[in-house]
Specification:
heterodimer; A: alpha+beta; Rossmann fold; Beta-Lactamase; 5 domains; five-stranded parallel beta sheet; five-stranded antiparallel beta sheet; 18 helices; 20 strands; 25% strand; B: alpha/beta; 5 helices; kinase (chain A); Sensor_kinase/Photoreceptor (chain A); PAS_fold_3 (chain A); phosphoprotein (chain A)
Chain lengths: 588, 134
């Protein structure tokens, strides 16, 4: 804005000296500080305007000597003046044209005949002010245009009624992949994804004259779908009813949100549907969260369970130890509470083990997270196993057999006490290898045992039985009945052999004795049948002869024979008695 | 005619058997051998006109009854020989062994009785040698 006290530079294009002086006088009345420059021809004026100048306003007389056509003059002057207001001074004859000059960019026109100092001053003043305002308006429009063109958000202007594209910005071109020309031949409906067309159409209709925002799915030129949020305002666009729409691509955001939702869902499922019982509590056992798996594990719903203190559910013999474990969380981030009992809804005890993590520092948890697992079945199995192991141990101790346990893969042989009590080997004598055991086999039995083991492995039998002699610590041999059980892997390779070496030396000796007896008794039996019967048969024959033929000769001789035979028989029987006594009294 | 040989190492047995065979009219003159090889020698030179019934003991020194039978198998006269095994006791093994010798017509456990002699005479192969009184 030009203050009246300021020096005002004015270019006066006036060939008529009288008019110029008049203008100078008028201006002098109104402005104290004024600096006039006179040009008498268009060419002169042009020269002054091309060079650097400081004119705030131009006063232009239309009748110049070097310009025939007034209109050409005005147009040239407007283009030369840039933003300097031009005030046309004209005579009555040119009044009509004077009016027309306004549309050619002239600020004002004044009739020379009606010219007065206040009127001129006022016109100059208004012209300068109007130009300033125009300039600001232009500047503002330019800024708004830049705001539209260079906005980081895609934007466009649509026809309010047809929704044809009227204008798009660079960000929209970049996002959608269409060129400006392509956009300008399109309608915004071309971007709408099939499934949601009706919905957008309805939103648009409902807000026909209003501003609205919504989120929609748009198709890009390459066919991919993007999620966008749109904000659309009705505007006047160069006198046309339109909508300006700003687009915000939220595809990434949507994907991130969906991923987050999925992750949340997954964690929720992990916690809620897991068989583990998850609780959040404080050091005093007050529960702030119980997972729904409580009903599965304890038969108590999560909403019921949370009403009581956690310690309330624990077996009274276990509760102190659980509390002690919890206190360790003061120094440790995470602790594990080994098996303890909690009471289920049917008043039965379940064994659980719990891992507790201290998340007091985590504002979203603010407590101790306890993750408990039902190990009742495991404990039951464990008890059974311990029982069975104890029983095995008792059996192994009670049996007079030597129990062997051979780890085939690692060539490790283990023995129970039998190796000492039966065979006399002390712990220091024993080397836990297969070779050590083999060396103690009787040399005559080694090959047989070796080929037997081979057969057994090939035959894939599990229960095997073999007899052999095994050397004791004192060098003597014992007869052994070895009953073994082979444990195989899934490929039926033998990996372990559990054996019981039964000392059958006594039995063997007994059998030997019986066999000796038997053979001696057989001797006796033979003697009986062959030796005893010989004299007996003779006696019988002689007696038969005497009886059948009483008149036979040499009767006395026959009787003598009977006597001899009877004595012989007597000797034999005495001998048998003696032998029999031998068998019983002196077992071999 | 049928000649009867008694082969037994026991003197009394030979005496008793000889008397019995005479009394039962199986033979008038039984030919007795204390040793089996003596009987082998006798048969080697025996006439094929005759048939020979051998009362053979099993358990004898030097050559036992079985060895003697093996010798007979080598003889030309073997077709004319019949053997009656006579032993103080006969066991299962002896009976099994006997199956190999088709000469053996029977086993008799000592002592031989008059009844044994009568049964002998009734055997089809010996019947022709003992004509009925009437």
């Amino acid at each position: 804005m030009t203050e009246r006290g300021e020096v005002l530079n004015i270019l006066v294009i006036e060939d008529h000296i009288g008019d110029y002086i008049l203008i100078e006088d008028y201006l002098g009345e109104e402005h104290l500080q004024i600096n006039l420059t006179r040009a008498t021809t268009f060419q002169e004026a042009k020269g002054k305007l091309v060079n650097t100048h400081n004119y705030k306003v131009i006063l232009l007389d239309l009748s110049l000597p070097d310009v025939e056509n007034n209109e050409t003059l005005v147009k040239n002057m407007v283009s030369l003046s840039k933003n300097i207001p031009i005030i046309v001074l004209t005579g009555f004859s040119n009044k009509e044209f004077g009016v027309r000059t306004l549309s050619l960019g002239i600020s004002d026109y004044l009739l020379k005949d009606e010219l007065s100092a206040p009127q001129l001053a006022k016109s100059i003043y208004y012209s300068i002010e109007r130009k300033n305002i125009d300039f600001k308006l232009n500047e503002s429009e330019r800024k708004y245009k830049a705001l539209f063109d260079f906005s980081p958000y895609p934007m466009w202007v649509l026809d309010k009624h047809t929704l044809d594209f009227l204008k798009v910005n660079d960000a929209a071109i970049k996002l959608y992949g269409y060129s400006t020309n392509e956009f300008l031949c399109m309608n915004v409906r071309d971007l709408w994804v099939a499934g949601i067309r009706e919905e957008i159409q309805r939103t648009w209709k409902e807000n026909y004259h209003e501003k609205f925002n919504t989120s929609v799915k748009h198709l890009k030129k390459d066919g991919s779908i993007i999620h966008v949020e749109i904000l659309s305002n009705p505007i006047d666009f160069d006198g046309r009813e339109a909508r300006v729409t700003q687009i915000k691509d939220i595809t990434g955001q949507m994907e991130a949100e969906q991923a987050l939702k999925a992750s949340e869902k997954r964690f929720k499922a992990l916690v809620q549907d897991a068989s583990d019982l998850i609780m959040i509590m404080d050091f005093s056992g007050a529960l702030s969260y119980v997972s729904p798996s409580s009903s599965q594990l304890m038969g108590i719903s999560d909403s019921d369970m949370i009403k009581h203190n956690f310690f309330h559910y624990i077996h009274k013999n276990d509760v102190e130890s659980v509390k002690e474990y919890l206190l360790k969380l003061k120094d440790n981030k995470r602790i594990q509470i080994p098996s303890y009992r909690i009471k289920s809804s049917d008043n039965k005890w379940r064994y659980i083990e719990t891992i507790v993590t201290n998340l007091n520092d985590d504002p979203s948890i603010n407590g101790l997270v306890a993750n408990s697992r039902d190990i009742t079945e495991f404990i039951k199995q464990e008890k059974k196993l311990i029982h069975s192991l104890k029983r095995y141990d008792i059996v192994a101790k009670a049996t007079s057999d030597t129990i062997t346990d051979y780890d085939v893969v690692n060539d490790k042989m283990y023995y129970n006490e039998g190796i000492e009590s039966v065979f006399g080997y002390s712990k220091n004598d024993i080397e836990n290898t297969g070779v050590w055991w083999n060396e103690r086999l009787h040399p005559e039995d080694r090959e047989r045992v070796r080929s037997f083991s081979e057969d057994v492995r090939n035959a894939k039998s599990r229960n095997v039985q073999i007899e052999y002699r095994f050397r004791c610590a004192d060098g003597s041999y014992k007869y052994v009945l070895d009953r073994s059980y082979l444990i195989t892997d899934e490929k039926t390779n033998t990996i372990r052999i559990i054996g019981a070496m039964q000392d059958i030396t006594e039995i063997q000796n007994y059998i030997q004795t019986i066999e000796d007896h038997n053979s001696r008794l057989k001797d006796i039996a033979w003697t009986q049948s062959h030796v005893v019967r010989a004299p007996l048969a003779r006696i019988m024959g002689l007696v038969d002869l005497i009886q059948s033929y009483p008149d036979v000769d040499e009767q006395s001789q026959l009787l003598e024979h009977i006597n001899t035979s009877a004595k012989e028989l007597d000797d034999i029987i005495r001998n048998i008695t003696r032998k029999t006594e031998d068998v019983t009294l002196n077992p071999r | 005619m049928l000649k009867v040989l008694i082969i037994d190492d026991d003197d009394i047995v030979r005496l008793v058997q000889g008397k019995l065979l005479q009394n039962c009219k199986v033979t008038k003159e039984p030919i007795k051998f204390k040793r089996a090889f003596e009987a082998v020698e006798y048969l080697n030179s025996a006439s094929t006109e005759h048939h020979y019934l051998l009362m053979l003991d099993i358990n004898m020194p030097i050559m036992n009854g079985w060895e003697f039978l093996d010798e007979i198998e080598k003889m030309s006269i073997k077709e004319n020989v019949y053997v009656l095994m006579v032993s103080s006791s006969i066991d299962y093994n002896d009976k099994e062994k006997a199956k190999k010798y088709n000469k053996i017509i029977n086993f008799i456990e000592k002592p031989i009785t008059a009844k044994n002699c009568e049964q002998l005479k009734e055997l089809p192969i010996f019947k022709p040698f003992f004509p009925q009184p009437n």
